[in-house]
Every structure is written in structure tokens, then in C-alpha cells.
Amino acid sequence: MTTTPLAHRATTAAARATDLSKVYGQGETQVVALDRVSVDFRQSEFTAIMGPSGSGKSTLMHCVAGLDTFSSGSVRIGETELGTLKDKQLTQLRRDKIGFIFQAFNLLPTLTALENITLPMDIAGRKADQQWLQTVIDMVGLRDRLSHRPTQLSGGQQQRVAVARALASRPEIIFGDEPTGNLDSRSGAEVLGFLRNSVRELGQTVVMVTHDPVAASYADRVIFLADGRIVNEMLHPTADGVLDQMKAFDAKGRTS
Amino acid sequence: MFRTALRNVLAHKARLLMTVLAVVLGVAFVSGTLVFTDTLGNAFRKQTAKSFDGTAVVVSSPTSDSGGGMSQDGLADATLKKIQGAEGVAGAVGRVSGFAGVADQKGKLIGSSWSNTGANFAPGKDGEDTSYDFTKGDGPVKADQIALDRKTAEKGEYEVGDTVRVSTSGPVREFTLSGVFTTEDGQVNAGGSLVLFDTAVAQKLYLKPGHFSEINVAAAQGVSDQKVLTEVKELLPKGAKAKTGEAIADQQAKDIESGLKNLNTMLLVFAGIALFVGIFLIANTFTMLVAQRTKELALMRAIGASRRQVKSSVIMEATVVGAIASALGFLLGLGLAVGLRSALSSFGAELPAGALVVAPTSVLAAFVVGVLITVLAAWLPARRAARIAPMAAMGSAHAVATTKSLLVRNTIGGVITLAGAIGIVSGAATGGGQGRMLIGGGAFLALIGVIVLIPLLSRPVIALVRPPLSRLFGVSGKLAAQNAVRNPRRTGATASALAIGLTLVTGLTVIGVTLSHAIDKATTDNVRADYMVTMASGNTMDASVLTALEKAEGVKAVSGQQAFFLKIDGEERIVSAVDAADVSEVFRLDTVSGSLATLGEGRIAIAEKTAEENGWKPGDTLPVAFHQDGDDRKAEKKELTVGAVYKENEFISPFVLSASVVAPYDSTPDIQEVWLTMDGGESAANEQALVKALGNDPGMNIMDKQELRNSFGGMINQMLNIMYGLLGMALIIAVLGVVNTLAMSVFERQQEIGMLRAIGLDRARVKRMIRLEAVVISVFGALIGIGLGTFLGWAIGETLKSSIPDYALVIPWARIGLFLLLAGAVGVLAAMWPARSAARLNMLTAIKTE
Question: Averaged over A194-209, what is the pLDDT?
């Protein structure tokens, strides 16, 4: 996996956090979830965020994705600084520039697969780019399932719908929160394959939080968090490499 | 088990809030009604007992039939004297009374006409009348003196010595106020006015000189009422009746009680409707609570709880909720009873004071009703809870609402609805009282059937509104329409609650509006006159009123309408005696044959149907018998020629004669109304001219055409408004149901809403989505109700058709539109709180996996 860096890719950041801190509570009960984290998520790159429970990996993702507020520092999506945005603008930003994939699929049971895929565009009141939509649908292999409702689909199929939903509106960046957490390993591998293909073939930017080394090995780059700080970074990871790194954290955690 | 139930209730406080509120309102309605009528009944009973205090025996005048109405012959002075001298009698007072209206400083009548009474002042040897306590001045002893009750004197701002204008049956007269009194008289205490005249004046006004309509007898010390009764009875003329004061007080109390019982029943019917509506809300809540607790209940089953135990745990929970709500409802009911009394007094109906009466049965009723309704509503959810398999404990997620069993449900619903509809239609075809009975039964069945069917109906109906909703409101509209049918049972129950209220509201409105249209039409079609003059008291007028009006400025045509009893061709008939020259100027009489001008020649005019039935036509002569002053014994046989046949007119009897033909046989004509056509039609100046001609008499009622219409149609409108008010409680509970359903939906769909927020649905549109869902459900319920209500209105109208001329069904589109609009508004209102909590949802916790 340690091949040459893809030179043709732009090196500008799709999202950037600078000195990002998130503090819960005050005084003695104060908990620092994120401690001056600075990180760039480069365009057309597949980044995995890893770390033990409570390391702040989900908080980092939520703050960068505009789902959660932060205490200090700055977050940019493209050229937009999130810290100064009101809820309405933040919602609009999420709608237009960000795609989401959740662990629990989170599809609307009343809508068909196709309707779920085009939901973000419906919300924005935009027409879907048909050509792109067809490309995405073919990529996730849902052509013959489009009129099914989520309850008629398997877990893997549901998550594929969710992936298509995230891709369909061509967001600047897609965030995945444990996207394979609820899937068996085969379906999980499928979904991860799609995500990697979307980066390789379609130039998409993907950031994914996971605790599964195998899932992380699909990424171009893995960021390791512990106690709210970035402690390591690995380019072109392998599952074994990630696992070793995680074991090292655990060992450190036990000895300290 | 009880502790589990109690703990469950406490754990779901918020979710049970609407259920508790619904039961509280229903129970408050019931207990408020019971306490209010008990309190009122008790107060009235005390009052009647008080007003007969000291009256041992009451003697009432003999009556005789004067050919149509009963009239009093009076008790002569001599009878009074004899009674006064009887053994065991301490004293006896003769009474005579009738209508007397008092003008205030501006010349307007004080109080409402039905409670304006006049009576005689009957002083004893000491110059005092024991029934009246004078606070100022003395009783009237001269012909030009009167006394007034304290409240009336205050309202009119009259002081002793002032001149007061009093209206009785003749022209208004001026009297000098000799005194102001208080009394225990029930009607006066209820806000009526009472004028006391000198006995001779009152006798002349209300009966005949030297006669009384009633004699009140007081017993001497130590003599029983019964003894006095026996003594007095022997002294009475034929036909006079005597009863003990106690018996009369009892009778009056009984009359009041039966009147209150009717009020009671009516209020309880509406309370019942409100409670019935509440059932749907309660059932929804318990269904959700059970669904959410599927795992927990399954676990209980798995560790050995029997079905019966699971079921009774839910029932127990319902019992606890019902009992708490009943207690609160009862307290609210007490407040309602107090509030109702002050509300009624602020409308001018003064009720006797008295302590709040809380009968044990009222308390019992409140709890029985509250608990029973809650348990009843929770029964089905409890049964469903008992059916949860122990295996469900191991499964995941909530129990999904089944659509499978809807098939059985729909078949049953379809059959019941069909049976109901057949009942209604055949009732409409049958007509009359029997038809209405059929309709009543059919309506009940149809309502139940539709309620059963509503979940089925909801899908296609709401599918219809989906395209316009998504076009208008984008993704919020689309999702709202879909969410509304996600749980058809719950949506159905919610919509049913609204549908019941609106069925009744619409049905009543259709009938009410149709009837008032018929009345309007009858008025415009049958009346030409600009004004109608009547006595405020509802009594008939004497000829002087007619004479006075004839002289009024601007009068073009004037005719009295006098009821006269005449035996025509062997049958007793009521004839309208009118002014022969002017009758066709004040009424729209369409002549079928002959000419109305012949009335002036002493001929009789007959309405078409009556003429046809008897085969009479112009030129025929009919044998008639005139009674001298209504006396059967003095009949004069004559013949009358039919002069004209006219189309039926609602405002005049089927026989018309000239007043001059009748005059020789009626020394005291009873003129019911005077109709006038004026130069320039209805105008303020013309009305003023009439007021002036009548001598500014506060006892006279002058109505223009609009007021005439209102006097009939107004009552219908008033009835409708009262019904709307009473159905309001049921509608409030239905609205609570919508709030409840939406709160549940928002709660259940937290994760979904969180996801929608994450992928870019802003707060405003989340709110709109919830609001639209509420609007869709409410308007759906309203549509069902309006449809059913209109159908019922039509059916009942069909049964009334034969008894109402000019009947034509009127669908009040404007009001129906208003109802729909209100239903939409109700939806928006009901969604306010759920929508806000949906928009404020914490996105991160919502999307987090369970």
C-alpha cells in the first residue's frame, strides 16, 4: 500500500481545523474533549480518524462537519469559517457542501431508495444531476433496488443507499461516523470499497471515524487521536500497521 | 404489580400529560354539571320554601274555557271576607297580578319582558303588606301611586316621589312612586321587576274590579295548615281550588327540579361526547406506552409473568392515571360550577345565592366516570401488551404497527358503516319522528363504522394531498404527508376525535342554517309590512293601540291581527280578523280565486289547502256560529259567503275576516300584532314616529323586518352558539389528541429528525414538517366529520320537510369553509409545542446509535 503519493491531486485542504478545542463543563468538572487540534483534510483524499473510546475522534468529526460547536480555534470547510456561522447558515453549509454516512444508516422509512438518495437535493430544492446520479447508482449497484423501501433492504443495501445519498449531491467533503459499525464484514468491505472508489475515481474527499483497523486500511491516511490530541499519523496504512499502532496506545494507556 | 404500575405512571409523566388533561376536562364537565345543578336546585328549593313561609293555604281562582284559552273568573271580595272571618285563620290577602313594564330614565324597558310583573299592594289592618318590606316610603294606596322593588328602582334611578312610566296592556301611564320595597318573591330575586299597584287599580288592570286571582291564607297560632285548608274549602265558590302553601312550594320545587334535570341531562350528554372523544387520545397514549415497553413486557413474560399479569399491569396503570385525573377533574369541576353561576349572572340571569352543594354521588360519579373511561380506553392496548411473546425480549427495536389485522377491521367497519348509512337514508325516506329515530340509530352506527374505517380511509385521502403539499412546501410537505399515514391507527384515532366533534357541529349547522333560511324566506315571501308592533309581555293589545298607530305620521297601511274563535260548518276555527282595506298591503296574499276586496263586504277569505280539503270556493255560503265574547252559550247562527281563496301564508290563519264583522261579538278584542306599511319603508324617522304614536311606551315592541326575522332565526342562531359552546369541550380534547399524537411522533422519530437536520434541513423546515403533519391529520378528521355531518343534516332536514313550508336544504359553504380553516388552524396550534421540541432536538444525541 505504500505506493507513490498521487502527484496529480491538489494539495489544498477540503477542510481544516486549527487549534481546535472543545471543552465540556467548567471548573473541576471540566472535560477537555479536544485540545488544540490542528489538522488538514486534503481534497480527494480518504482519511480515517482512529483512537480509543473517549479520545475525541467523534467530537473532532462533529466539530469539523458543523454538527457541533467548539470552544476555541477555527474550522474551515473550503473557504468558509464555521465559527462565525449561525445555525441556519451552518445547516445550509451541511446541506450544500457536506455529505454524511451514519452508523445506523438513518434512512427515511417512508421514502424509496431513490428518494432517500436524492433527499439532500430535495431539501435544497435542486434538481439532481442525472448523469452523476446514474453514475453513483451504478457504482453502488442499486439499480434494481431503487423503488424499494429501506425496510425491504438488507443492512448492507441500506448503507449503500446512504453512501449514494452522501455522494449524489457532490459535496466537497463526506463524513462517515463508523459507517461499517452495523454491518457484517462482507457488506462492510463493499461499502468501504465504494468509499475508496469514490475518492480514486470520482475525486471525492472522505473523512471517516472508525475503530476498526481493517476499515482504516482502506484510507489513504490515518490520524490517531488520544486524549483529545493528535498523537500520530500514518500514510497508506495497512490493517496490521494500524492494529500495531492501536496496541501501542493500549499498552501506553495501561502503563501510564 | 401495583408498585410497577405506579412507577410506570411516574416514569411517563410527560407522555401521560395529555391523557390526564383529557380525562380531567371530561370529568370536570361531568362533576361541574352535577354540582352546579345540585347547588342551583338546593337554592331554588330554599327560596320557594321561603316565599311560602307563613302561607298556610293558597286559594286560586276558578277558570273557564273562553273558547280557546283558559281565563280566570276571579275570586270575589266577598269570598275573601268570608275566608278572613273563618275559624283558625289569622289573615287572608287577595292577590292579582300580570305584566307591568317599567321605563328607565331613557324610556327603555327595565329587565327582560318575561320577568316584568305587576301586582296589588294589599295592606292589612296595620297598613302593611307582610309580603313586602318597605325600605323607603310606603305602599301605594291611591290610584296614581305605585311601589317598586329595590333593584328596579335602582336600575331606573327612581326616588320616592318621582314620576314613573309604567306599561301594562293599555297605553302607558304615569304614576308617582310611593315607596321602595324588598321581597322574598322568587322571580324578583331572579332579577325580575315588580310593580305594586293599589288593589283597585291592579284588579282593573289584570282581572275585573272587586276580584282576585289568588287568596293567600295565614293560619292562626297553633292551627295546622290542613285544618285551615278544610275550613277554607267550604267557603269557596265552584271551581276554585285550594292547596296548602307547603304543597305548592313542593310542587314548585319539583317543577324547578325537573327543569334542572333537563338541563342536567343536556349538559351530561355533551360531557359524554367530550369523554368519548377522550377515549381515542387515551388509547393512543397507552398503545404507544405499550409499544415502547415491548422489550420490558416481554422480559416480564420471559421470567414467568402470565398474560393476565401483564394485562393487569397495564390496566392498573390506567386506573392510577384515571384516579389522579379524576381527582384533578373533580376539583376543576367545582371551579366550573362556581364559574358557571357567575357567568350566568353576568348575562343577567340572577340565580338565588346558596352554598355549593357537593353530593356524595357527584364525587362518586366523577371517579367512576374518570377511571372507567381511562381503563376502557386502555383495554385494547393492554390486550395487545398481553399478546407480546417472550421472544420479543430478545428481538430488537420497537414493535412495528401491524397493517395485517386492518383487513378484519376494515370488513367490520365497512359493514357497520353500510348499516348506518342505510338506517340514515331510510330514516330520511320515512320522515317524521320515526324517521328521526332511525336516523339517530343510523348516525351512531355510521359514526362508529367510520371511526373503525378511518385508518383505511387515511391512506388514499392523504395520498391525494401529497402532490400539492410537496409542490407547495417542498420536502417538508412531502415528508409531512407521508408521516401522517405512517401509523394509520394512531392517525385514525386522532382524526376520529376531531371527526366526532365536527360531525355534530356540521350536522347542527346544516339544520340550523337551513331552518333559518326557511324562516327568512317565509318572512320575505309573506310579509309586505315594514313594521310589526307587539307587546313586550307577549300579551294581546286592546283597540286603543290600533287607534294610536293609525294616527302615526307616515302610515300608509295598518292592520291589526286579532284572533277570533268561530264555529264554521260545525268546526271550531281560529280566524284572523284584519283591516279589510289594508290587509293586502301588509301581507303578501296571493289570491287563487275570488277577490280580497270582498272582505270589505263581510265575506270570508280562506287559504287554498283548507278550501280544497273542504271543497269550498268563492260564492259558497258557509253556516257559522258567532259566540258573544267567547261564550259558548250565547251563539248566533249566521251564514258567511266565501269571497276569496288565497295561497297559504305563514303569518295569518287559514280564515280571514274583516275586523268590523267580528267587532260586535268581541267587546275586548285580543289584538296579537299590528302590522304597518309606511311611506318610505323602514327608516329611523318612521320608527320614531311609531314610538311617538305609542306614547313612548316601554312595553311596546316595534320590529322592522330584519328584527322580525331575527326574532325567529335569532333563536336558532342562539341555540347553535350554545351547542357550539358545549361541543367546544369535545373539540378541545380532540385538539389535545392532536398535540399528543404529534408529541409521540416527534419522540419516536428523534433519530430521523436528527438525520434530517444533519443533512441540511433547517429548523424552520423541521417545524413546518411537523406543523403540516398536524394540519393534514386535523383537516382529514375535519373532512370526515363535515362529510358525515352534512349527510346527517340532509337526512334530518328530509324528515322536517313536510312540516316546514319553503323547505330547501342549505349547505352553509362559508361556514364549512370556516370549519376547515379552523381545523387547519387547530393543527398549527396543536403542532406548536411538538414542532418546537423537534426543531430544538439535539442533533448529536438523536443520530447516535441506540
Answer: 92
A123 touches chain B (CB under 8 A): yes
- From the list B756, B757, B844, the residue facing A68 with the nearest CB is B844
pLDDT at A175: 94
pLDDT of B850? 46
Cell of A190: 463493499
Cα–chain-centroid distance for residue B835? 39
Same domain? B504 vs B564: no
Residue at B430 is within a domain: no
Whether A170 contacts chain B with CB within 8 A = no
Record: contact B475-A103, CB cut-off 8 A: no
- Final residue of a structural domain among B355, B382, B400: B400
B113: enclosing H helix or E strand: none
Distance from CA of B759 to the nearest CA of A (A): 5
CATH code linked to domain A13-255: 3.40.50.300
pLDDT beyond 70 at B12: yes
Considering only the beta carbons, identify the residue of A62, A110, A123 that sits closest to B759. Answer: A123
CB-closest option in A67, A119, A125 to B843? A67
**The predicted structure's pLDDT at residue B398:** 44
Taking Cα atoms as reference points, which of A185, A164, A172, A177 lies closest to residue A119? A164
B residues 457-476 lying closer than 8 A (beta carbon) to A: 474-475
Is position B435 within any domain?
A: no
Give B10: exposed, middle or buried? Use CB within 10 Å, 0-12, 13-18, 19+. exposed
Residue pLDDT, tens place only, B396-408: 444 444 555 677 8
Q: For residue B231, name the pLDDT band (cuts at 50, 70, 90).
A: confident
For residue B791, pLDDT over 90 is answered with: yes
A125 touches chain B (CB under 8 A): yes
Same domain, B249 and B229: no
User: Is B655:B95 a contact under the CB 8 Å cutoff?
Assistant: no
Q: Do B665 and B522 have their domain in common?
A: no
pTM score? 0.79
In a domain, B420, yes or no: no
The listed range with the strongest mean pLDDT (A18-32, B116-130, B496-510) is: B496-510
Domain count, chain B: 4
Q: What do you get for the CA distance between the two ends of chain B, in Å?
A: 29
Chain B neighbors of A87, CB-CB under 8 A:
762-763
Measured between CA atoms, how close is B516 to chain A, in angstroms? 48
Nearest to A110 among B483, B754, B844 (CB): B483
**Residue type, position B501, single letter:** G
Length of chain A: 256
B628 has pLDDT over 80: no
Report the distance separating Cα B121 and Cα B119, nearest Å. Answer: 7
- Report yes or no: B760 at the A interface, CB cutoff 8 Å: yes
Mean pLDDT of chain A: 88
Average pLDDT over residues B667-686: 87
Asked if A70 and A22 touch (Cβ cutoff 8 Å), the reply is yes
What is the Cα A4 distance to its own chain's centre?
24
On whether any CB of chain A is under 8 Å from the CB of B850, the answer is yes
Sort out which chain A residues have CB atoms less than 8 A from B751's CB and list them. 104, 106
- Write down how long chain B is: 850
Cβ contact B119:B171 at 8 Å: no
Residue range B21-66, pLDDT digits in tens = 889 999 999 999 999 888 888 888 888 888 788 888 888 888 776 5
Q: Is B846 on the interface with A (CB under 8 A)?
A: no
Whether residue B171 is found in the same domain as residue B120: yes
Give the pLDDT confidence score for residue B506 in this predicted structure: 94
**Final residue in a domain of this structure, among B666, B697, B728:** B697
Classify residue B419: in a domain, yes or no. Answer: no
Determine the structural domain holding residue B66 and report its residue range. Answer: 54-244
Do both B29 and B118 map to the same domain?
Answer: no
Report ipTM (2 d.p.): 0.87
